[in-house]
Records
---
Amino acid sequence: MAKMSAVEKFFVNRKNRSLHEILADLDGSLAISNASKVLEVGAGAGKLSLLLNEKYHPANLFVTDVDEEQINLAERNVKERYGSVPTNLRLEKADLLDLRYSEESFDVVFAIMVFHHVGGKNLDAALDNASSVLKVGGQLVYSEMFHKRKIKDYLTRNGFTISFSKSHALGLGELVVATKSLRNPDGECRVETV
Ligand SMILES: C[S@@+](CC[C@H](N)C(=O)[O-])C[C@H]1O[C@@H](n2cnc3c(N)ncnc32)[C@H](O)[C@@H]1O
């Protein structure tokens, strides 16, 4: 597991302003309703999850991270905010390189500053996993400072449509919303109509 360094942890767990900025930027670009099932991978301290929960009230929000310490911290932050863990929130350890969720089960997957942690050689596997748990028509929302071209190439190759993209100042990199297409890259329909 690519754990954060103590220094990175310090900064990531304190930052909040940039997460508000992300949500403000995404205003009008996200297809989340109170019926949505949302996954945040690499959720860290769970701060974006809290903001998402309060803004969109999704039916289910899975707050996950590979690092148990981060999940425990996220749980403490959730309890500090609400007194207990709300029934629509699920906090659990999950590795983006070994995601155990059902295929096409989430409406939106968030990965904010996570992909660089898996390393360049695991990038396609991480994107395959994020893509596989996303419903057709669902949105992958990520921000990344590294491998930006490589990620976009993957998305284009795999039939995603990029509907939002913005470069941020230091610390957040590029924020992107990509929608999983109805069609695979060969142009064949991924879902059968009845
Ligand atoms: C830079 S932090 C970002 C945290 C949070 N998304 C934010 O923006 O505040 C990266 C997070 O990704 C997690 N992470 C690293 N590798 C991961 C993996 N393979 N699967 C899931 N999470 C991972 C780290 O533990 C860390 O919490």
---
Amino acid sequence: MRVAKLMAVGAIVMAGLGVGGVASADEPCTYGWICVYGNNDFNWKMVSRGGGYGVANIAAVYNDKMDSWRNTNATHDAAWYHNSSGTGTCRTMRRASSDNDISFTDSDKLSSWRTDVGC
Ligand SMILES: [Ca+2]
Ligand SMILES: [Ca+2]
């Protein structure tokens, strides 16, 4: 009985994801913040931060997943890195700009990022 109930719950969760999870929904980024997304076209917002913060590693569940980003901050460039702790290839996310589909050579590489300066 317990297993059957868990399976039923799982089926409901999966059905729920099917409604909006697969579609390429554009998820907005709070004005003044920098947001990184796991899919193209600003879909699957993973993490967002305000401007002015130094290097931080992204949570393990989001590591090597980023495919699009938005920097809605008017004064701070931001940057992200292929490796943890601000190491490896660096890419700038310029203030008041976005990229809905980053280069395939950068896809699924983000391990750390900062919101105070560019590269
Ligand atoms: Ca991805
Ligand atoms: Ca990486």
---
Amino acid sequence: MVPDTGRHFALYFDTSSAVCGEPVVELQSSNSALNLAAFREIFSKAKNVAILTGAGVSAESGVPTFRGAGGFWRKWQAQELATPEAFSRNPSRVWEFYHYRREVMLTKNPNPAHLAIAECEERLRQQGREVTVVTQNIDELHRRAGSKNILEIHGSLFKTRCMTCGHEAANYNSPICAALAGKGAPDPDTHDAQIPVEQLPRCEQAGCHGLLRPAVVWFGETLDADVLTHAERVLDRCDLCLVVGTSSVVYPAAMFAPQVAARGVPVAEFNMEDTPATMSFRFHFHGPCGTTLPPALVRHDTEPL
Ligand SMILES: [Zn+2]
């Protein structure tokens, strides 16, 4: 449906927000205690909670994005390496980049926002209520925090897909293959390892041995249709939607949040950004989501013990 061109979506909505953005956020933050109480009232009754999460949640765990100012791996940013063209030109370099990102994740941990979401999912499940995380993050920190109901719309750093047979598999090996051991250093003066393609990660399906790629959605690629359909079903039936660590007016949350708001379902944002708030997005909690989210999701007085 919608290609993974975050740039397109962000540009479109950024332009519109420049026109209609109003300083509603300021007004809301001055009433933040009232705002929180009102959110909590709705949260305590919600049966199906959809939580859209973005880069901000991972950033609070120190996960680099390789985007924006200072966000470089060697001489490049993610949008130059995370493309099918870059991989076909130089699979060794792209694998070094992903190997580095996988290894970095061994040193990172879920933060209080991930943990609050996971705890909330388990608690509400016991009450016959449902929480689903729809995330653009590929680092699996939600899974490590204990969340189970997760849709990874951009795939995972810890999955591979075979270029020949298409087989997808979980892969937590460190290093992912012998030739990448000790490779992937991010410093700008590091030379490419130039690993021969047959020594890069290869498919282990019987008789295949095809080249593996990271099972993530690259720039210019479309989202997996099944995952997208599932996400839309989740958003269609939710009665409360949280947008965490991103904004509901930029891709990818912008694919989902407006349709939720259009049904009259409350949308609550938890992020660092000054969002062009409209009345359709009911709540906005400004600040690091590791700080703002836990008190919002903690057990409500009216919940059964
Ligand atoms: Zn294969």
---
Amino acid sequence: MPVDFVILGGGPAGVQAASTAARLGARVTLVEDNVVGGSANLRDCIPSKAMIATGGVLTLAARAHKLGLERLEPRLDLAAMRERVEAITGRIEATSTQLLASQGVRVISGRGRLDGARTIEVDSMEEGSISLHADAILLATGSRPRVPTWAPVDGKRVLLTRQAYPPEEIPEHLVVIGSGVTGVEFVHMFRSLGSKVTLIVSRQQILPQKDPEVAAALETDFLATGVRLLKGARAEGIEVHDDGTVTVACDDGRMVTGSHVLLAIGSLPNSESLGLDTAGVQTDTRGFVPINQHCQSNIPHIYAAGDVSGRLPLSSVAFVQGRRAAEHVMGLHTREHRHLDYDKAASAIFTEPEIADVGLAEAEAFAVGRKIRVTKVPFATNARALINGDPRGFIKIVSDPATGVVLGGSIVGERAAELISVLAVAVTNNLRVTDLAESLLVHPALAEALAEAAE
Ligand SMILES: Cc1cc2nc3c(=O)[nH]c(=O)nc-3n(C[C@H](O)[C@H](O)[C@H](O)COP(=O)(O)OP(=O)(O)OC[C@H]3O[C@@H](n4cnc5c(N)ncnc54)[C@H](O)[C@@H]3O)c2cc1C
């Protein structure tokens, strides 16, 4: 008898798990209450990157004269950009749906919850109430933006991330609350599309979790392009005025008024209405479902993957977790399953300059007193960066001084999100700096700076 595998949530984690398990012979049902492809993925991650790409062309055009062109002044076509964003997300949704259909996965459009350890109840829009038996269950329900009690979110003037695209209008003056990865991407996105932007930074450093040198590089660029930073201020109130303006009040008495406010202050797991208590599935104090190496919760046949697992909230991580959970359900864990080391996950921030990092950061090593070797090469000495007209930024490699093993790295500059893959492969596979330095690379290429930093 095939294994009955029921998946709640059709984001990157759920779709990847469904596809893997179906390929391995499971009878798979996927329950999704919004959009196959995932709400966080298709309503946040992908649209934000698509709009950043449009803004990037405007920024590039502003620099075009440096490459020997007459000054270019393209203007934003808002309707065309909206259409483009919708076409991209529609395409990804269709691709996921077709993939699952071709593999015989039953997709139910509706909201599911556990009713005991082996039954899923679904309120389906098309099929009414459905009861499903499961030998194994995957919770892949993702997360949603956190909304503080003091924020009157209306989707018009006071926005959550996923309400900001595709936008009806480009904000005249956007006030962004939250200076983590999401907050700074929004600053960059709307600044490049023509908004005046103010960023409220609760500490003294934007991107507080990142290497200070990396954060400083972005801050320099923000200030150079007119972004206003309100540092050491915590937002604690928002008032929408009759004239359409919005004022944010900070805990130190400072006020900032703009045309729109965007909240980017973290997310909450979608776990509270899943009936987890009926099956005895434990959550942590914030509602995330703790998991082991195979993505199992405390109940061995109930798995969790993606944002709801409380590990790194990245689509890239959700994909791998979904695949891993499905393989374990199908007994493939007996084959050597490499230890999934979340500390070695690469991540990127799609700002300008782009930022990416992987593994151990210099500041992190310093904080725990670990001996490291740090080498840094600026793009200003890289031929390709000069040719492209954008020599900002640097590559920094952190390695073990005794063995030469690459422990981590940060990249600030053009194509950082692509280049970091090389360092991610090195970190994951314990390659040494000499392995990078002795590789025969292309010339002229930005990647040459990687080899140089590895020397
Ligand atoms: C602004 C922003 C930008 C981002 N940019 C990036 C990026 O550049 N790179 C990156 O790797 N990650 C990025 N992320 C993070 C990424 O989007 C998430 O980590 C990823 O989508 C998580 O996948 P998931 O499958 O866990 O959840 P989701 O993609 O949210 O999918 C979960 C699905 O489950 C459904 N669901 C919830 N409850 C139920 C239920 N009871 N029954 C049925 N269905 C249910 C939801 O509707 C949703 O569709 C970004 C996030 C944000 C907010």
